[in-house]
Design goal:
Layout: E1 16-23, H1 46-51, E2 61-69, H2 76-90, E3 95-101, H3 107-118, E4 123-127, H4 140-152, E5 158-163, E6 166-169, E7 174-175, E8 184-185, E9 193-196, E10 199-202, E11 227-231, H5 239-247, E12 251-256, H6 264-275, E13 279-284, H7 304-318
Helix pairs in contact: 3-7, 5-6
The structure holds aspartic acid.
Aspartic acid binds near residues 41, 70, 103, 104 and 130.
């Protein structure tokens, strides 16, 4: 039990929930309680966020600060540390589930990384907030309570995210709004469920799958493959792709227009890049849906940033160069 938390009577609840703190707006602070945008992310330790929730008193809860950053700055070293911490906690038989406090900006990338690497049989619940902890109407405390409720729910599994009472699967999670508290969406697949007064109401099957395994992240961050995203748009040019290839990029994800179409100038540069050994994956720049027909490929249903991560993991897993 971290200091500052209500004490737990041993034996009241057999299952332990571990909260791993990584920062974000949920741990952010502003000078004024009415300021929801001029704040600094990642200021409050995770134990403080928990100590502010008397509703958790008496529950078996542990906390660990894995990182303290604005998730716009998420990096490979932090991902390694987080994935290892999650795996370590899930290996303890008394742990029912893990909650990760995180920023919203790259929440979907971390969710996908943890799902692909660990595909956990117990719940790993990512939680975030759009308003800082100092806000007069902070959303973090309720989101954190909801996340703990989900992590405690028997049968919950896989990596999910909980915000604004809505539960999203890692695969479908998309940040769709820069400001409102209900900033995430699950597109065509829909929500996994909702949390109502601390009770999870499920709508569909929860994430499953084969994990790549923690070893896929073993390579030193400086040696991770370099994968970039390029976007097809009106008046696109091939120069950026040629510059990336000249600089040694290993993989490219093209966020294509519509159903996977790419501007002819960019397409020519991408074909040349492929010819020189660079892996090129295609996904859509549309906010929802998946590529249908001949342009389908490994990233057909992924967002550009999810595809970038997936291609990175695939190269790490193949243990090839770059
Ligand atoms: N920049 C913040 C972060 O991602 C935004 C947030 O958490 O809402 O850490």
């Amino acid at each position: 039990m971290p200091s500052g938390l209500p004490s737990t009577s041993p034996g009241t609840l057999p299952s332990t929930i571990v909260i791993l703190g990584t920062g974000g707006t949920i741990a952010g602070a502003a000078a004024s309680t009415s300021d929801n945008v001029g704040y600094t992310a990642a200021q409050r330790p995770v134990v403080d966020l928990l100590a502010a929730l008397p509703q958790l008193a008496g529950q078996a809860i542990e906390a660990e600060q894995v990182a303290q950053l604005d998730s716009k700055d998420m990096d490979a070293a932090t991902w390694q540390r987080l994935a290892r911490a999650v795996a370590r906690q899930l290996a303890r038989p008394e742990v029912a589930g893990v909650v990760v406090t995180h920023g919203t900006d790259t929440l979907e990338e971390t969710a996908w990384l943890l799902q692909r690497v660990l595909a956990p049989a117990r719940p790993v619940v990512l939680v975030a907030a759009m308003r800082p902890a100092t806000s007069i109407a902070a959303d973090g405390p309720q989101n954190l309570l909801d996340a703990v409720a989900v992590a405690r729910t028997p049968g919950a599994r896989g990596v999910v995210a909980v915000l604004a009472g809505r539960v999203h699967a890692a695969a479908e999670l998309r940040k769709v709004h820069p400001y409102r508290t209900d900033a995430f969406d699950s597109g065509d697949a829909g929500l996994l469920g909702v949390v109502e007064e601390g009770v999870l109401r499920r709508f569909r099957d929860w994430p499953a799958g084969e994990p790549l395994g923690l070893g896929v992240l073993d390579r030193a961050p400086a040696d991770w493959p370099w994968v970039e995203i390029v976007v097809s748009h009106a008046a696109a040019r091939g120069d950026a792709v040629r510059a990336l290839v000249a600089a040694g990029v290993h993989g490219l994800v093209v966020a294509a227009t519509g159903n996977g179409t790419v501007h002819r100038e960019l397409d020519a540069a991408l074909r040349a890049a492929e010819h020189s050994g660079v892996t090129v994956w295609r996904c859509t720049r549309c906010a929802q849906g998946a590529l249908v027909g001949p342009n389908r490929g490994p990233a057909a249903s992924m967002s550009p940033w999810q595809a970038r991560l997936e291609l990175t993991l695939s190269r790490l897993a193949s243990r090839g160069g770059g």
